[in-house]
Amino acid sequence: MIALGLMSGTSMDGIDGALVDTDGEKAVERGPSFFVPYDDAFRAKLTAALETAKRIRTREERPGELAALEREITLRHADAVAQFLDGLPARWRDVSVVGFHGQTVLHRPAEGVTVQLGEGALLSERVGLPVVWDMRAADMEAGGQGAPLVSAYHAALARSLFPDRLPAVIVNIGGISNISFVPAKGEPIAFDTGPGNALIDQWVARSGLAYDADGAVAAKGRVAEAAQDAYLAKPFFSQPGPKSLDRLDFTLAEAEGLGLEDGARTLAAVSAGAILRAVEHLPEAPKLWVICGGGRKNPHIVGDLRAGASVPVIVAEEVGLDGDATEAEAWGYLAVRSLRGLPLTYPGTTGCREAVTGGVHSVPKGKSEAA
Ligand SMILES: Nc1ncnc2c1ncn2[C@@H]1O[C@H](COP(=O)(O)OP(=O)(O)OP(=O)(O)O)[C@@H](O)[C@H]1O
Ligand SMILES: CC(=O)N[C@H]1[C@@H]2OC[C@@H](O2)[C@@H](O)[C@@H]1O[C@H](C)C(=O)O
């Protein structure tokens, strides 16, 4: 089945979309992908929404501007999809389902609340395709963290692309970072590892930059060890998985007072250090680290990972993947798993009581469900 995954992650940089042709199990052929960046004004709206969302007590609530914003997010996705589908080669045109993540504005696993803004039914009507959405909620209802979800896909990729190098860890360095530990057999283990790019983005935003492109700002700075230690001493890092983070759980507080360049360098070191600390919570040492997500383009994060790991650390492209598209591909893969009633999460990935499927299915009026 050809599935289109849509991810708008915690970096709030835009919409990633990617096609996969998959059975939701072992078979995965990766297809074309796209990225539509958010403009600065819209990114500012999303940032403000994180504050408004703090008022949410039950996940259906949409206080203040959130209802209108949810519609706008959905319509931006619909436009991006329409444009993408228009230019596709014949091989990929027959899309059966869309997996829609939406924009997380609140994630409080301890309270059992996670909110992704996005109206799957509206998207389905607009693009004329079945949509699977709200994929985190069922996991939380089953006692899970509601994140990370990408691990089932990471496991399928690792087992097909580098079966001889398992156990391996696939790392996603988005706004927040998360890892999947993939053993040769059995279910993956996963958890959020700490801040990825979000703090770096916030830090350089003070100087008018959207992000530290290729680590150019950090290249002129030095790691401030006291600040780095203050971050890495936080109890989150000693806690075993399953665990997951809200975008606002880590702040710039520990970096305050540093200069622009030292701050950018220190926060890159914190991102790497946070990921390296994950090893203490894994059942055995991995043989390989594979890095996906925008953070793999920050040479300081990758360099610090290489310096701290005793095994090879490679980027997604070195195993034939597109590290910008992996998470979007995962949402397509998970949509197919949802249609087939297969688990999205496992006790070892989110802490759910038992392996659980999830997702809400919306079909355009007059059409029957894809399957
Ligand atoms: N050339 C680059 N150099 C340094 N950092 C980069 C570069 N390109 C992108 N990034 C960083 O990657 C971020 C985007 O990463 P990504 O798209 O993986 O995040 P995301 O979609 O929010 O993911 P998640 O849902 O996993 O948090 C940007 O905000 C930026 O910080
Ligand atoms: C609640 C939420 O949106 N969490 C995201 C976020 O971004 C990275 C990290 O925190 C991760 O656990 C999760 O996304 C990934 C892609 C996932 O669910 O697998």
UniProtKB/TrEMBL annotation:
- InterPro entries reported in the protein's UniProt record: Anhydro_N_Ac-Mur_kinase, ATPase_NBD
Any idea of its EC number? 2.7.1.170
Q: Please list the reactions this protein catalyses.
A: 1,6-anhydro-N-acetyl-beta-muramate + ATP + H2O = N-acetyl-D-muramate 6-phosphate + ADP + H(+)
User: What does the entry list as the binding residues for ATP?
Assistant: 9-16
Q: Name one Pfam family in it.
A: AnmK
Q: Does the keyword ATP-binding apply?
A: yes
- A GO MF term: kinase activity
Q: Per its UniProt entry, which superkingdom is the organism in?
A: Bacteria
Q: Which pathway is it part of?
A: Amino-sugar metabolism; 1,6-anhydro-N-acetylmuramate degradation; Cell wall biogenesis; peptidoglycan recycling
UniProt keyword annotation of Magnesium present:
no
Which NCBIfam families has this protein been placed in?
PRK09585.1-5
Free-text function comment from the UniProt entry: Catalyzes the specific phosphorylation of 1,6-anhydro-N-acetylmuramic acid (anhMurNAc) with the simultaneous cleavage of the 1,6-anhydro ring, generating MurNAc-6-P. Is required for the utilization of anhMurNAc either imported from the medium or derived from its own cell wall murein, and thus plays a role in cell wall recycling.
Report the family membership. Belongs to the anhydro-N-acetylmuramic acid kinase family.
| Record's protein name | Anhydro-N-acetylmuramic acid kinase
Please tell me the species this chain comes from.
Mesorhizobium liriopis
